[in-house]
């Protein structure tokens, strides 16, 4: 029969650590309030040391192209963003995009907006005024890694000089999960490709985009390489305004001919020229984006006023540019913690781009920091409605659910994250925290057996977090494995002192009849803020036995309370419960030697007894009794204890009333 577990459910809410552990400068940690996650900013440009802006070099256009190379590309948003290879458009002076399936026979002008030379990827934007946004994109990005043997197909425009400008289909299987020389960024596939296929889409059998074709082996047949789509997804995060990627795949379940018929409309021929420029892009646009690029550099150097001035200049040139408001809001939110000031900028982005999921996320993040939970929850819900794969939004929403004691809902969000564990790269949390917090929620739902393997996974990932050991210790306590509980709490306390670790170690020791040690733990837990620990101590703990135990181990009784600087953050008022805990009443200033935190035991029946030596320099003597108070002397200073007092704490100046 477990002793003192009825208060477990009420107390466990005290011990959930702050969610994030990666950037403690953002919010002040508060272990009892999971609202503050200390989270790394989402898509933080200074952390990534990456340039977020549209290419500062705006690609010039030519009316008379003079083609030097051809390649393939495919749409990824209805707003005219396409993907191709970096090598296909490197140093291009003009790019024409031919999409006959969409009715554009003469070619659309396009510009490079983002390049990744290392992974051979480039993002283009249709800049032609005749282009109208598309109704939708029929395919989506594949979640997770494809397996060897999966069926695939490729669309592209190979060797147009001899094979014509009709889209070509080749198909095959995934031959390997790595590319040339074991390159983990690529797949090897058996589909045959030729020059001109570069930049074309690689589809799985359901019509999901798996990758971007970019190379073939010179000495082997049917050894084609494609960059995995996850690297494109990471690259797209560097854009100042997030793209609204398709979320619905209308190709699933269709025959291959029907899939090809629909997907080929959005797979385009690119003709790239290096001829002299005869037409340039709008100069204000180029200047405005260059200013934002300079602002990003200033933010990285923590020159925020300089960055603000540059962003304001950019907005003056392009008042309707959402990228500028996004960057200013981002700086205010994550770099300056100016939560109120950041929200209007995200409002502006949303007004300009109503389906901008990342703007909703950032606004929700700011609202959550301002403790506007309901508004933040709406924004995280909207984020997930627009992008069901945003694991950061699941994480933040789960935190709100925990604050509201909705543990089943929080677990559902953590499960959504875990389903995407191998295919996602979260920015505001580490995956170890997801496992830990899921275990915590299971514990709150009285499911310790289910929680144990989950928290074990967290410990496999990180053995240096005290709160993970603490949580597993509590799970062991609920499972009545008291020795294991004590072992884990010992480990937790060796890393960092916490009230819950003392408390549950004390309860476990009580259940193992280690009463003296248990009482010392409970007193420490009480002093750190768990007032219920005092109630248990008042019933189970004999002051004489505790003092004897302390003396026998040659440990001053004060050490039982583990006084430290961190103790100053504990509640300043002594706990109030039955029996009443009186305040020490001193007629004059406190002696220096009594300012150290400690626990005093008073037994009114022993008049004149030396109650406790707190240290070699501090002693307390009961020297008289009158009108319900014991007169005591502490190093020559007279004070009083009321006759109902069993024990009191002192040492925190605000907790002591001077007479």
Q: Could you give the topology of this structure?
A:
Blueprint: H1 8-12, H2 45-48, E1 67-75, E2 81-84, H3 86-89, E3 94-99, E4 104-116, E5 121-126, E6 151-156, H4 160-163, E7 168-176, E8 186-189, E9 201-204, E10 209-216, E11 224-228, H5 229-236, H6 256-263, E12 267-273, H7 283-300, H8 304-317, H9 322-335, H10 339-352, H11 357-369, H12 373-386, H13 391-403, H14 407-419, H15 431-444, H16 448-461, H17 466-478, H18 482-495, H19 499-511, H20 515-527, H21 532-540, H22 543-552, E13 585-586, E14 598-601, E15 610-615, E16 618-626, E17 629-634, E18 637-642, E19 647-650, E20 657-658
Parallel strand pairs: 13-20
Antiparallel strand pairs: 1-2, 1-12, 2-5, 3-4, 3-12, 4-5, 6-7, 6-9, 7-8, 8-11, 9-10, 10-11, 14-19, 15-16, 16-17, 17-18
Helix pairs in contact: 7-8, 7-9, 8-9, 9-10, 9-11, 10-11, 11-12, 12-13, 13-14, 14-15, 15-16, 15-17, 16-17, 17-18, 17-19, 18-19, 19-20, 20-21
CATH class category name of the domain at 67-273: Mainly Beta
Write out the strand line-up for the largest beta sheet, numbering strands in chain order.
1-2-5-4-3-12
The end-to-end distance, rounded to whole angstroms, is 47 Å
Helix/strand class: alpha+beta
Number of helices: 22
Radius of gyration: 33 Å
CATH architecture of the domain at 67-273: Beta Barrel
Which of globular, elongated, flat, extended, rod-shaped describes the shape? elongated
Mean pLDDT, to the nearest integer, reads 74
